[in-house]
Amino acid sequence: MRIKKPVSSKITGVVIIFGLVLLTSVAYYTIILDGRSVTATTTTTNNSQTTLQPRDPVSVMYAASLLKTFEESLGPEFEADTGYPYQGEARGSVQIANMMLDGLRRPDVFVSAGTIPVMKLMNDTDPLADWLVKFGAAEMVIAYSPNSRFFNDLEKARTGKIPWYQVLSNPDLKFGRTDPELDPKGYYMIIAAELANKYYNDSGIKQRLLGEDRNPTQIFPEETLKTILEQGQLDAVAAYKHEAVARGLPYITLPPEINLADPKFSNFYRTASYTLDNGEGQTVFGEPIYFSFTIPNTVKNLEGATSFATFILSPAGADILEDQGLNIIQPVIEGNISSVPSGIKNEVQGMESTPTLPAID
User: Fold this and answer.
1) Which pLDDT tens digit goes with each residue over 174-189?
2) Residues ≥6 apart with Cβ < 8 Å to 49
3) β-bridge partners, 63
């Protein structure tokens, strides 16, 4: 067994025994055990130290739009803060739900774009989840490459000098999006285009932008779509605002009546829809896009999963997500509240009871 230097440590408490003050701290170590990297903790006072306590990794499957944020910021910060090894895998949220239902994946935490993928787990005949927590809101935008030969036109669209849909309708412009059968952003783009038909009173916009709903010339895997854009193989892509912000990409803001980000337009959003070709004929209606998480009933590391979920809700986690462009909301629990781990429930309820401080001029 080989032990690396501590990755972090913190004072966790003060103990007073017969007038003697003892500082209690926890240090997190990485142990190389049988070729495996395992995080462990030691609890130390000012005159004693306990034995090493290995911590099991936390397996997290999440919407691929969060790839850069989770792998470069949130995951490493979670490890440093808690000592739990983080193991992340990014895919389209619908694809993740399908893989879980087929028994191909058993993550400790599932972070989804939208709530429909988690609801699939909750509504199954043998439910894999009982609850979800909404924690952030997303906004549909059009991200584009600084190296695109259409860059000048895209910039004009960004500043409102020409209509955005006019630029994207150019048959020579290469536009990318995700598969609506595997990724919520795929069907959200279709819904946004249908809303554009109504908002601009032009029934041909969606067809000019997208062609058929599953146009094979436009569809790419969610986990690689932005990379393909950055490599110059595409001119523009359907994206969430937080993806563009995280990758430093320029983007075109869509009207709030179209971007699926403003609850004020919820009724208008519902006038557009997409029907999944999944054998069930499920129809997805337009709605504000909320990111959510759950801990599946098949969880292996419940303590670690709860720690990751509470870290997302913590000020540190919220700051990371907000810095990357996700709109942070007051968390909302849906489903069987009694099944929610107490640590998560207390975090949400504590935030609900925290008064909002008045603004200081």
Assistant:
1) 999 999 999 999 999 9
2) 42, 43
3) 91
Using one digit for the tens of pLDDT, what is the confidence trace for 224-239? Answer: 888 899 888 999 999 9
Average pLDDT, the chain: 86
Candidates 248, 147, 157, 261; CA nearest to 209 is 157
| pTM for the full predicted model | 0.79
Provide the greatest CA pair distance for the chain.
80
Buried b (16+ CB within 10 A) or exposed e, 205-215: bbeebbeebee
Picking from 67, 85, 128, 144, the residue whose alpha carbon sits closest to that of residue 301 is 85
| Six token digits for residue 24 | 């209690």
Q: Give the 3-state secondary structure of residue 35.
A: coil
Token duo for residue 178 = 């995700």
Q: Which of 230, 236, 206, 204 is nearest to 218 (CA)?
A: 236
Q: How far apart are the first and last CA of the chain?
A: 58
3-state SS, residue 26: strand
Structure tokens at 276: 């999944």
Model pLDDT for residues 242-300, shown as the tens digit of each residue: 999 988 999 999 999 999 999 999 999 999 999 998 767 789 999 999 999 999 999 99
- Give the torsion through C-alpha atoms of 160, 150, 274, 183, to 10 deg: -120
